[in-house]
């Protein structure tokens, strides 16, 4: 531009502008097909999972066959994620609690799948304003969502039925169940069932939800990634949304605490590594 405007030579124009002459002759580097495809795949992931950031998107792509053996390092994915202008919903950071009772339940740590199963209720409403409750059950070791059951109300008998369904599906009885002291969890029906089934209870201290951290974290993720962006008109829709997110959570959603693996893959890996011990 300076050459055309002032009639200067290339050498003089580059000297005045402190520009290297070789850089002036270099064209814009061609974008590889691989990078174009990666950017397209990142856009697809961001559209399908709007609550995910670039880390989860990278872990997810690493599990896809088309990216097997291809270097998807963190800096590259983060750079392209930002170039595409992709974002995710910001997380609400909660204050970490301390003091008496805050770490009481840390002494019971899950060491294998179905060692410690935690559960809790989560509330929401349908579009008509009626109350709805989700009974969420999580395996603490593998982070697997064992159940997300929506109903208008629950009794201790309903909780027992849900736990029996989980045992029938997995073929394993949990060693411990962790929950708060809600009436459904302290009723005789559930306590007697635990005693008969050989399941130990690990109740958290009253008014200490942080002691049931896995269930609380799961509830927050479920609300942030599914419930917040959906309107439920009927119980059938609530069940569909719960089942849909359970499938995504267990089979597609990578977990940072699991090294980027999904809960089901983490469980399967543990099973493969401990087959002799299980037998």
Automatic annotation (TrEMBL):
Domain Integrase catalytic: 109-271
Ranges that cross the membrane: none
Gene3D superfamilies: Ribonuclease H-like superfamily/Ribonuclease H
Domain of life: Bacteria
Example GO molecular function: nucleic acid binding
SUPFAM superfamilies recorded: Ribonuclease H-like
GO biological process: DNA integration
Matching InterPro entries: Integrase_cat-core, RNaseH-like_sf, RNaseH_sf, Transpos_IS3
NCBIfam families assigned to the protein according to its UniProt record, in alphabetical order: transpos_IS3 (NF033516)
Protein name listed in UniProt: Mobile element protein
UniProt source species: Arthrobacter rhombi
